[in-house]
Amino acid sequence: PGVMNPDSYDHYSQAVHFHFDDWFPPILSLVWSGTNKIIRGSAGPFLLHLLMVMLSLYLLSDVALKSGKRYYFVPLFIVLLPFISSKAFTIISDVSLAASLLLSFTIWYHAHSAGTLKPLHFILIAPILLYAFSVRHNAPIAVIPICFLILVEATFLKRAVVPCILVSFCFIYTNHAISYRLLQARKSYNIQSIMAHDLMAIYGTTGKNFFPSSYLTPESLNNTMPFFNDIDIDSTAWMKNSYLKSDASVIRSLTEAWLIAIFKEPVAYFRHRWKVFRAFLTNPPLSFNQCRFP
Fold this sequence. Notes:
Elements lengths: L5 H12 L9 H10 L6 H24 L15 H7 L4 H22 L4 H17 L4 H15 L6 H22 L8 H16 L11 H7 L9 H4 L10 H17 L1 H17 L1 H6 L5
């Protein structure tokens, strides 16, 4: 049980070998290493995600039942909708984020609706939100509003802002401590794939090469460009003998070059980013799943 894609295998490899990097936050791999001791393989996180989703839907149904709704059982069948079931069983951090956000919200909503909200509920919700916060690099954008919503219940609206900020900083510190102190995850600087993709797009449009030679030589750039795709980072980032680097000084040089390129060629840059954004809006499967490995 449980569907695995290339990202899943990366998580699983780190869970098995207990050797981590931060291309994806390592918290899912850490949890997977724990479930592996009970049920080996994909079944562990699959059942964990399924438990979180079904418990959330049960809590929603229970709220509807106690509110006297005739079709109180409908939420239980949401998981069977194709656009839910096709993703919910994939072992990736996206599903972990969605399931943990759903569970933390429904625990709060169930207690709030029943008028039984107690400190124990906040204690229960906190580690779930911490996991959600830590499981994807962009998760804070989704988690912080949920934190604010929950904290509003415990404080006045204006006073909820400060506790929300403090909780966010606590989550950041705890995630950093788990990733780099406890797990000693290797820094992979995954943002470099986006910067390199932007510089290739600018090069393809203007013919101007802004890459520092310490990152990508002109010869390597010209050998890479035939595989370049405007909306597909993976087509070049994961080539054989990939150009991706883990040297902090080289990444700093790339960052400086990227900023210079944006300043000097803003039209080419924003035209490229618009293509990526438009592909995301009009054809998400293409922008996310079109992968080639030359």
